[in-house]
Design goal:
There is one protein chain. With about 140 residues, the protein is an alpha+beta fold. It is built from 2 helices and 8 strands. Strands 1, 2, 3, 4, 5, 6, 7 and 8 form an 8-stranded mixed sheet that branches. Strand 6 (about 60-70) and strand 7 (about 75-80) form a beta hairpin. The longest helix is centred in the C-terminal third of the chain and has 18 residues, at about 115-130. The radius of gyration is 16 Å and the shape is elongated. The protein starts with a strand and ends with a helix.
Length: about 140
């Protein structure tokens, strides 16, 4: 069995990460899951949340804006709407986005167009703030 597993994270804009790591965890829509080298094949949709990977004693954190993961024994491929390393997150911008979305939400009823999108914006901003705190 391999000692490392390759992880690739791809967004519509770029290849965000390509690395050999010891372990990967991600926020699937059905719950968080972990992947080690030799993992069985699986597919999962990903919710707005974190992808973490461990290489030796180093753990890195990435904020994802949702997407899909394809897992195999030697490789994890993540196709994400957005992906941002914890150290690259602009916390001030995330806080402003959160405040703006929360203010907008106060003006919308659950039946209005834009309500679900507003909730998603809040979730993305909160995730970015939480992930940034882990750097």
């Amino acid at each position: 069995m391999a000692e490392k597993i390759k992880i690739e994270i791809v967004t519509p804009d770029a290849l965000v990460l390509s690395a050999e790591v010891d372990e990967v965890t991600a926020s699937g829509t059905e719950g968080e899951f972990g992947v080690l080298p030799g993992h069985y094949h699986m597919l999962s949709s990903l919710k707005v949340g974190a992808v973490n990977y461990k290489d030796g004693a180093v753990v890195r954190h990435i904020a994802l804006g949702g997407g899909y993961a394809e897992v195999g024994p030697e490789k994890v491929t993540i196709l994400a709407e957005t992906a941002e390393f914890a150290e690259d997150i602009d916390v001030d911008r995330a806080n402003k986005a959160l405040a703006a979305a929360e203010e907008l939400l106060k003006t919308l009823s659950m039946e209005e167009a834009g309500y679900e999108e507003c909730l998603l914006s809040i979730e993305k901003a909160q995730t970015r703030i939480e992930i940034a705190a882990k750097q």
